[in-house]
């Protein structure tokens, strides 16, 4: 999911410089009006005064530059309004996009929260069973029962079988990992032994085909041994859906396959194998005779029985359906918590981004109004400066006094500027 962070860029230089970062890390452009340019304005007024002809200004025409200053002021105010409207347009577009993404993020967040609530119930139920109790709420008395009546506790599966153990909430024991390591070595040993048997029976087969057969045979026999131990443990725990003949049947099939492989190793062990040069610790094939075949078959059978016992006994000792159910529920629950955290952060970031855009619009309007007042005040300052320059150039005390105390001409009105939209 793309992060809802945006750095807004606008074409106008007037407000491109400003950046404001909110608490979520998103950066939003601020409205920056163009500078008034005081130095250039003062220089321009001085140039206009220098170009005035001698005697062009008297007591009645002391405001000769006011109309020019008013025109430049209106120009600056127009540029200010244009910059503000451009900023407002771009910011409203970004705010609309941010608001449009909120419903999708909210729906996703609600879905993740609903899923988290379901998984929390599953985890609590699995935890209660691992404690040896019924599911949450099962022990509460019913409203239809009498207050003094005693309610028999509900039967909890596996409560007296060793499956229920609060300490198992911490995770699997070290013995479980030791069993997996031993089983891994047993798999490697079985592959080596079974490959020799396949080479004895299928001498003309390609080594790749033989290797596939070896891997399949190894998986079958170890799965049978593992299922035998697991079913025996479940039957002892009282799992009703596990058939009583399941464990003996798996053990019988496993034993028959082992005896068959040992018989093949004994029967064909004296025949040299020349089907290839691939060997996994195989004895010298030039040796022959029953003296070599019997020890080889006995070694193979011992290895087969050992690996089967590792798989079966290990499965019996490590099987715990309550712990497996709890670990699965806890793992999925933790993932759901992470997804809810990510969805919540994305929703809050997008919501904060939309609110930041709206705040930026309000701040831009206030800044526009303040800058407008600055421009109008600067226009009055320029008019006063122009009169001072004119009076200094004329060097006439009467004219200077008239300019300083200048009032609008008869019938004249002070300039008015349109209010901002």
TrEMBL record:
UniProt feature coiled coil, ranges: 102-129
Gene source species: Kutzneria albida DSM 43870
Region (Disordered), start-end ranges: 133-156
Highest classification ranks of the organism: Bacteria, Bacillati, Actinomycetota, Actinomycetes, Pseudonocardiales
Transmembrane segments: 177-202, 208-229, 241-264, 292-318
Keyword Magnesium listed: no
Keyword terms of this UniProt record: Coiled coil, Membrane, Transmembrane, Transmembrane helix
Protein name as annotated: Putative membrane protein
């Amino acid at each position: 999911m793309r992060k809802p962070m945006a750095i807004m860029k606008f074409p106008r230089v007037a407000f491109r410089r400003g950046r404001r970062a909110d608490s979520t890390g998103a950066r939003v452009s601020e409205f920056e009006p163009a500078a008034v340019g005081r130095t250039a304005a003062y220089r321009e007024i001085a140039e206009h005064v220098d170009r005035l002809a001698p005697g062009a200004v008297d007591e009645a025409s002391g405001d000769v530059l006011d109309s020019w200053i008013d025109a430049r002021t209106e120009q600056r105010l127009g540029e200010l309004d244009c910059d503000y409207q451009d900023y407002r347009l771009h910011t409203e577009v970004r705010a609309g996009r941010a608001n449009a993404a909120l419903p999708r993020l909210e729906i996703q967040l609600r879905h993740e929260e609903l899923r988290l609530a379901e998984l929390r119930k599953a985890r609590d139920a699995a935890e209660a069973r691992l404690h040896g109790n019924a599911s949450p709420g099962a022990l509460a008395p019913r409203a239809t029962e009498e207050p003094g009546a005693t309610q028999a506790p509900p039967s909890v599966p596996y409560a007296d079988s060793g499956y229920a153990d609060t300490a198992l909430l911490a995770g699997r024991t070290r013995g479980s990992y030791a069993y997996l390591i031993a089983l891994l070595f047993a798999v490697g040993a079985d592959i080596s032994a079974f490959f020799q048997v396949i080479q004895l029976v299928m001498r003309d087969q390609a080594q790749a085909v033989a290797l596939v057969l070896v891997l399949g045979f190894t998986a079958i026999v170890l799965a049978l041994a593992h299922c035998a131990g697991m079913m025996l443990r479940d039957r002892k725990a009282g799992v009703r859906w596990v058939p009583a003949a399941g464990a003996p049947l798996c053990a019988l099939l496993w034993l028959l396959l082992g005896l068959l492989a040992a018989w093949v190793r004994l029967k064909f062990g004296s025949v040299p194998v020349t089907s290839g040069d691939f060997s996994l610790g195989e004895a010298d094939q030039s040796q022959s005779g029953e003296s070599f075949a019997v020890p080889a078959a006995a070694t193979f059978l011992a290895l087969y029985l050992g690996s089967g016992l590792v798989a079966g006994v290990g499965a019996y000792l490590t099987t715990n359906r309550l712990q497996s159910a709890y670990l699965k529920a806890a793992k999925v629950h933790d993932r759901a918590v992470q997804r809810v955290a990510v969805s919540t952060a994305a929703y809050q970031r997008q919501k904060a981004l939309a609110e930041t855009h709206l705040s930026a619009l309000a701040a831009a309007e206030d800044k526009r109004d303040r800058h407008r007042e600055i421009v109008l005040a600067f226009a009055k300052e320029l008019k006063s400066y122009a009169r001072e320059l004119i009076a200094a150039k004329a060097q006439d005390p009467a004219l200077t006094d008239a300019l300083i105390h200048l009032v609008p001409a008869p019938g004249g009105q002070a300039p008015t500027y349109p209010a901002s939209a």
